[in-house]
Amino acid sequence: MxxxxxxxxxxxxxPHVDDQPESQxxxxxxxxxxxxxxxxxxxxxxxxxxxxxxxxxxxxxNSVVSNERFQWDxxxxxxxxxSIGRGLWLTVWLTAVCMMVGAALGVLLxxxxxxxxxxxxxxxxxxxxxxxxxxxxxxxLLWFNLAALYPVITFGLPGVNLDANAIITPLAAAIxxxxxxxxxxxxxxxxxxxLSVDHGQQEAAGALGLTRGQTMRRVVLPQAMRVIIPxxxxxxxxxxKTTSLVSVIAVPDLLYAAxxxxxxxxxxxxxxxxxxxxxxxxxxxxxxxxxxxxRRFSRGNRTLAPTPLMRLRAAVSTHAALSGxxxx
Amino acid sequence: MTATxxxxxxxxPASPGESPMVWAEGVHKSYGRxxxxxxxxxxxxxxxVVCLIGPSGSGKSTxxxxxNHLERVDGGRLWVDGEVVGYTQRGDKLHExxxxxxxxxxxxxxxVFQNFNLFPHMTVLDNLIEAPRRAxxxxxxxxxxxxxxxxxxxxxxxxxxxxxRHLSGGQQQRVAIARALCMEPKLMLFDEPTSALxxxxxxxxxxxxxxxxATGMTMAVVTHEMSFARDVAxxxxxxxxxQVVEEGPAARVITDPQHxxxxxxxxxxx
Lengths: 328, 270
Fold this sequence. Notes:
heterodimer, A: mainly alpha, MetI-like fold, two-stranded antiparallel ribbon, about 70% helix, flat, B: alpha/beta, Rossmann fold, four-stranded antiparallel sheet, 10 helices, 12 strands, about 35% helix
């Protein structure tokens, strides 16, 4: 704020400063507004808090690095181990497959929840209640042991006669358990997204002669994505970590690979560190992907968040402008 | 009385070319126990501009929404262009139309909403060509050509690639009008098109509507703009409490209302 505006605010009935003789003007007005330097408020408390945090961070890094029991050399050896790599690949693959199953089934369940038919609505509600209401670990174990319940799977159809033990491999049980469970959560996310779109949008699309399917695909869902994507990103990151549960049904994922190695070498801590590092790497990559996806789907709706590259450019150009002004 | 009962023993409307564009006979509509339309009798002739005026909650917007079946009529009959809205008559029964057929009929009726309802995730051009392409099966080039001509008509050719949120309310509403016109409708419905606008932007939208009326478009306009109704409308219909209380030539109803309630309303809005 300039000095002129400040003086005006103090004296509401607009004192015609310019009409007064030079000698009677307040001292502040003798400096031209353009020449005034703005001094921002200093946040002493924040500076102290930041310093304390830096000290704590340094102490923690020091203890982790200097504690030989972390066995960083072992960590380094196994970080690029082939079986760890295979486990990591399976973890990423399983995450992708389960999220796709979850998302596809989730959209279907969400549309069913919004149906005009009470039986369809209730069926979707029951599905969500069951799969959200029981622990996913229990669901995994149940799918894994499905052969105990249904030794032969027929789907009630003549001619279908499948051996449950042969079909429900550990991997199939993992996909079923995690995917069907995820669908329950995804359906709630998609439903919230659909409901977040103003009803006027559906009316406008309908008045233009678009069918319900076209309205959903072309008008409602693209706008719902803005609401759907952030929690879906969280779900994906959550799913990546939840896949570690499949190690209990002998699916050779990242955690299982680490466990296999340390049951042989008796070095659990460094191998759990190896697994943690890889989980952290993949979740970080996913977070970056989420940022760009959110940006893509918020088109036309609000000011887009700048990408890191744009921020860097902005910082450079501001700096250049400032230093350019000082030198002139 | 249900729609089915009323249809019995009634003659069909005259052939589409001669019948009025909109013809309502005893139209009823209720939300639960709340009866919002209590037997509306109304016609909108071909090429005619009819303004529906009246206090909030009088049913004028609901009636407008019945015309393109955004609201379902509970009783009475409503024809648009010689076809019963939302139903097909076989013998003495009215069968509700399939979604697809309802969509097909809606393509002939343009509608402009109070809150514009542009698609915020599409550019202005994409807003205009979406329905012609999806609902009428037009080629992209064909739809784009018409869209650009209409944007010029409403004075927004320089906003072709802008997103709706970067436009003022008045500009958004003009885009919404162009979007409706892209479908080459036979009838345009306006539901309080200027009520959500800043006062200085109302004029631009009304000017576009005036031009449209001058081209001979059939228009039904729910509005509180009395000067627009007086100058542009052929007829004004005054709604109160779910009924048509008074109707007649625009200048006569606005300047010399006969009914007590019309007089009171017009005194209040002046």
